[in-house]
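**User:** You know discrete backbone vocabularies at least as well as I do. Would you mind producing a protein record, from residues through to fold? Write it directly below this note and I will take it from there.

**Assistant:**
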Amino acid sequence: MSAGAKKNLFNIAIVLAISIGFIIWQFQGVDISTFFASMLKVNPWWLLGAFAAMFVYWFLEAVVLQTASKPANKGQRFFSSFRITMIGQFFNTITPMATGGQPAQLVMLTKQGMDAGRGSSVLLVKFIIYQAMVVLNFLVILIFGIHYLMTGVTQLKFLVLLGFGVHVVVIVALILVGRSQKFTTKLVHVLLLPTRLFMKKEKVANLKNTLDEKIITFHEESSRIGKDWKLIVRCCFYTTLQLWIYFSIPFFILQAIGVTGIGLYMAITYHAFIIMFATVMPTPGGAGGAEYTFTLLFGMLLGPAKLLMALVLWRIITYYSCIVFGAGALLIKDTASKKIKPHIEALTKAPVKNISS
């Protein structure tokens, strides 16, 4: 087994340990036999609806990737975009704060023949749009649903501010990287300083020159995408639709377990907040934070047995399904890369410009 596979399994084990530990601690009074008996009575059609919503979430994620990358890679098929999306989902779920998804997707895009600088730009713009839509849609949801969050749980005020603040800082930092070539170049040069301790000067210089070239293509592509307002608007629309469908998943789960007293908008409000906070947790998959906020919110309305059922089903559908299907995507070979790579490489062989401020 490779070192990378061992690390992935270790991260998955951490998530399982934290999740199981939280469940054992939080739901000590729930009878296990009663829990499993109740799980067998879950409405399969509502549960299928929850899984379908998750699939649509993945599908729209792939649509955004296809839309953003198509101008830089004319030959990219939607199948390739969907596969890359699922691989990104896999690494997002097993790394702290979803930091592994973007690098994994970049590797897959370069295998498709896309230049690393252009691929980085596509993924950065896509990620900025996603983060911005998370914040904007959360604000919209808060306008009409803040009374759901502020009722009975005093900790939520702090958690709302924390989650919102972190997302805003991330967006500002990403925009700075995407807009300022001078800042990005200096940042990369600073990050390269430790390499002098274990690499020869010639290798460090070559690496520095290579990265400078990639930064140029990165900012050229960022500038091109930033001026394409039709593309930006389409990506924002698809991402907004994607998020609202994703936020609705707990409603399907609650209907599946026979809970009819929680409306669709309340479920959306709760889930939007859970995602806003859990994604800034420094654990793989937001483990611990996700379970805590889910229990904190839905625990005000559900008994322990129903709450445990909802929590387990929610984690299976929104988290563990990404691991299963993402791992499957890793095992599937994409033959399209062999056909389009030579064409893309020919397009990217252009004279390198000097770095400007």
Q: What stands out?
A: Residues 342-357 have pLDDT under 50 and may be disordered. The two ends are 46 Å apart (CA to CA).
